[in-house]
Design brief:
The complex is a heterodimer of chains A (about 280) and B (about 325).
Chain A lengths: L5 H31 L20 H41 L4 H9 L6 H11 L5 H8 L13 H25 L3 H9 L4 H12 L1 H17 L2 H6 L7 H10 L4 H26 L6
Helix pairs in contact in A: 1-12, 2-6, 2-9, 2-11, 2-12, 6-9, 7-8, 9-12, 11-12
Chain B lengths: L2 H42 L1 H38 L2 E2 L10 E2 L2 H4 L7 H32 L5 H9 L6 H15 L5 H25 L4 H8 L4 H30 L2 H6 L6 H11 L4 H42 L1
Antiparallel strand pairs in B: 1-2
The chains are: A mainly alpha (about 280), B mainly alpha (about 325).
């Protein structure tokens, strides 16, 4: 395929500017973050930080903010599970049952993402407000105590977290379901498989790449999210992102913020690699 | 503005929303019950009926769930649109109070908001232009060339997508501070380009790898030079992918809060404005911007649909003709 001589330099020339950007503004910062996490915690922004290889920053950060770290993974895991359960039927219908409504439904999934993420999150304050229809209905159904509320509870944070990243679940699922050959489903039916069997034995295994991609695209950003916890929760619902934000922008404790960032990233990487091992090799991109 | 009519409209809207929600729940539950019943009946009435009825119920059950999920996805957008016509009772209130058109008549009434929107548009344009160029070049290299280090480049391109935004933002901040670079407009642009590039590469690459490489070979067999083949065959075919990537990059940049929060210094983009306002009280005009963004996105998606439909219909008549010829 490749044309000799000149052809060997061309790809590097094409890659150069983009790679340079990523190395300078993604890779180098990551190294600097790791370095910052080992700075002397006694330093400050004004006096400067000394590199003391203070690995103690890590246990200190976990001791102080282990709860928020755990909550991040708990909420994000729950949101991912909910997004999968909610997103799968929707993706299934769009890919296989929607017919000529397919494009319109896809637009309905994508278009909300164009309305500012913060503004939509704030809209949940209205939806879940104490005088709102949802709280009223849940109180009437006795699912909520007469004075129970949704705002400022983990339920509100997880509801909104799931909502925020649901499109990132639906779209990869849709992509993998749409690629599925409907004749396979017909063939399974012709071979006397019941609908549930067709789903379990044919549809679900063939859509696994979408499930893997969707869960990753939901779980990773949800774990680092702190906007939902800040806007819809209280400090009791704070996730690690809230702590990192405060460490860098309010308390100006860079080593601790950096240590928490690195911990978050490492934990996510470990979970992702574990999940990919279990769910089988996924096609990247 | 508003008064009794406004309160009437708000009450009506609230009741309508509650009613719709209740109906949704009823339908959803009804389907669930129907499914149970269907399965019970199916077991009694033998295979044939079971199959028919079971499948019917299963199909519709899925449709009902999908409709509910779609409602969940669209509800906040509907609320934002509704709130854009709302005159809140106090600065920190998020409830419907009075109907008004004032927010739409004078969207810039909130102090500093329009300047923030403008800032976001500026950042968005620069970041989109740079990231689209860089990303498209990379996508071409990755799809069209086999070279040493390709796997490593792939990993580096996807890594920012797989990194939570807090980590992206804090690491860049750590670097900027260590290097003594002040944060501001250009550091926001740099950060946005960094995370947009990956999305551009993925989008353009998908389009490019779905393209039939034989078309270019055919063009060159017909004595087109390499450049002509690129200009007349490849580029027109890839352009929709590039346009989609640019649109995606712009929306990502325009909407980014977390990374911007760490690298903006005193530069206030629209999300930064909303974040700051959420602590002091949100001006209702914010919802006007949200609704307008949604409307613009819908228009652009509709336009791209029309464009694609016209190319697809011309392509399908062509292919139909060719299959007929083969027969």
């Amino acid at each position: 395929m490749s044309r000799s001589g000149r052809g060997r330099v061309v790809p590097y020339l094409l890659l150069l500017p983009g790679l340079l950007w990523l190395v300078l503004f993604f890779l180098a910062p990551a190294v600097q973050l790791a370095a910052t996490s080992l700075y002397d915690p006694a330093g400050s922004l004004t006096s400067g930080y000394a590199m003391t290889w203070s690995f103690g920053n890590y246990p200190d950060a976990v001791a102080a903010y282990g709860a928020q770290l755990g909550r991040s993974f708990g909420y994000a895991g729950l949101a991912t599970l909910l997004a999968l359960l909610l997103g799968y039927p929707l993706a299934y219908v769009i890919a296989l049952r929607a017919g000529r409504w397919q494009y319109l439904l896809l637009v309905c999934v994508v278009a909300p993402m164009f309305t500012s993420f913060l503004v939509r999150t704030l809209a949940w304050k209205t939806v879940l407000s104490d005088g709102g229809a949802v709280v009223g209905l849940l109180r009437d159904l006795h699912l909520l105590a007469p004075d129970g509320r949704l705002l400022a509870t983990p339920a509100a944070v997880v509801t909104s977290l799931t909502y925020c990243y649901l499109p990132f679940m639906v779209l990869p699922l849709y992509a993998s379901l749409q690629r599925l050959d409907p004749r396979l489903l017909e063939a399974a039916g012709d071979l006397f498989a019941r609908p549930a069997q067709v789903f379990r034995r044919v549809t679900l295994p063939l859509s696994m790449p979408g499930v893997v991609a969707g869960t990753l695209l939901t779980f990773i950003p949800a774990t680092g999210d702190y906007v939902n916890a800040e806007l819809l929760g209280t400090p009791n619902e704070y996730m690690v992102g809230n702590v990192i934000d405060a460490a860098f922008l309010v308390r100006l404790d860079y080593p601790q913020g950096a240590a928490l960032s690195v911990l978050l990233m490492v934990a996510i990487l470990a979970l992702v690699i574990g999940w990919l091992r279990r769910a089988g090799p996924a096609e990247a991109g | 503005m508003g008064g009794r009519f406004g309160r009437f409209a708000a009450v009506r809207f609230g009741r309508f929303a509650a009613d719709t929600f209740a109906r949704f729940v009823a339908i959803g539950f009804g389907r669930f019950a129907a499914d149970r019943l269907g399965r019970f009946v199916a077991e009694r009435f033998g295979r044939f009926v079971a199959d028919r009825f079971g499948r019917f119920v299963a199909d519709h059950w899925v449709l009902a769930v999908a409709a509910l999920v779609l409602g969940y996805l669209l509800l906040p957008v509907a609320v934002v649109a509704g709130l854009s016509f709302n005159q809140p009772s106090s600065r920190l209130s998020y409830d419907f109070a009075e109907f008004t058109l004032d927010n739409w008549r004078d969207p810039c009434a909130g102090p500093g908001m329009c300047a923030a929107v403008l800032r976001s548009v500026q950042v968005g344009f620069v970041a989109t232009a740079v990231s689209t160029v860089l990303g498209t070049l990379m996508a071409f290299a990755l799809v069209r060339h086999r070279f040493r280090g390709r796997a490593a480049v792939n990993v580096l391109v996807l890594a920012p997508v797989a990194t939570p935004e807090v980590v992206l933002g804090t690491s860049l901040l750590a670097l900027l501070v260590a290097a003594g670079i002040p944060q501001g407009f250009w550091t926001v642009v740099i950060a946005h380009v960094m995370f947009c590039v990956s999305f551009v590469v993925v989008t353009v690459r998908a389009r490019l790898s779905g393209m039939d490489g034989r078309l270019e070979e055919a063009a060159m067999d017909l004595y087109a030079s390499e450049w002509q083949a690129f200009r007349r065959v490849t580029l027109p075919l890839v352009l929709p992918g590039i346009a989609a990537a640019a649109l995606l990059a712009f929306s990502l940049s325009f909407d980014d809060f977390v990374v911007t929060n760490f690298n903006s210094g005193t530069t206030v983009t629209f999300p930064m404005y909303v974040w700051g306002a959420s602590q002091r009280g949100i001006p209702p005009q914010v919802n006007v911007v949200g609704t307008a963004m949604f409307a613009v996105a819908l228009l652009m998606l509709a336009a791209s649909r029309l464009g694609r439909r016209s190319t697809r219909s011309s392509r399908s008549t062509r292919s139909r003709r060719s299959t007929r010829g083969r027969r």
